[in-house]
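Batch queue: ligand-bound targets. Current item pairs a single chain with zinc ion. No template structures supplied; prediction is de novo from sequence plus SMILES. Inputs echoed for audit trail.
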Amino acid sequence: MERLLDIFFSGMALFFLSPLLIPIVIILKCTGEGELFFMQERMGRHGMLFKLFKFATMLKDSPNLGTGTVTIRGDTRVLPVGKFLRKTKINELPRYELTIPSSKQQVSFRPFLVKEQKTLLIALESQDESQILRAVVDTIGSCVYEPIKLETLATFDVEYVFTMIRSKSVGENANVNLKCTECEEFTEVVIPLEDIRIEIPEETPTVKLNDNYTIQLKYPQYKALQKELNSSDPDTMTDAMIDMIILCLDKLRTEDELINFANETKENTITFIESLNTQQFEDLIKFVQSLPKLKHDVLFKCDHCDKDNKVLLQGLQDFF
Ligand SMILES: [Zn+2]
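Prediction returned. Tokens below.
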């Protein structure tokens, strides 16, 4: 039934757009190479592929000519009518806006395409955190129009920006299965991705060690995290925690000096952390554990026992 409605409505849309479409078809047929459409694969709901017809505004062999898949102003591969369609953007991918949480930079982006979706799926299947992160960041790089310094993105920037791109690519909602705290059965819950926010404290966080020493902390960059994922395989939870803390240490303020942790060797920094007392160490752990991340409170009624549940989703994997 839904399928029938889809066909009905797209038929209606085609009918009403035909005064616009038919002249384009005629002009394309009479100019250029006489090709009307070319097909491109796009991602639909739930990651399903479908074929999309686009008007052929460029020479068939364009990807192999000149600047390849990149179209430049005055590109000789664009057909005469192609120029018009391109100018009027009938043929363009939609453009959306978002603000990068840490830098507050406003950028515009397009949904991701099949080639990017494929890379993401392969990475997800690998279950290798580092590979997933790389695929996610590469996708951000391709979909955001403005040049952004990918390597300076904080981990939560990556989570947020990717979630927004994904919401415009495969659907505005994420369907997640959540477990009931009462009967432990699962209920499917729909989460509107647009509602997800990231809160970042205004001030630079610090940890006061004593009257003379204060540590200035920073939000870890995804690049540093990825390097960490690649280089070490920590034996214990404490080692893993120390690795995370190192990524968050910015400067040590003493009475008369400001020491930059970036200039110290990892060994020196580890020695420094190990010389802290347990309370000071706890304070650093607290910071690591409260790093900004995607968060969303979900209220849902269990399908099986009717219990009202409240769950906090956080981090990228909770929203996939
Ligand atoms: Zn239940």
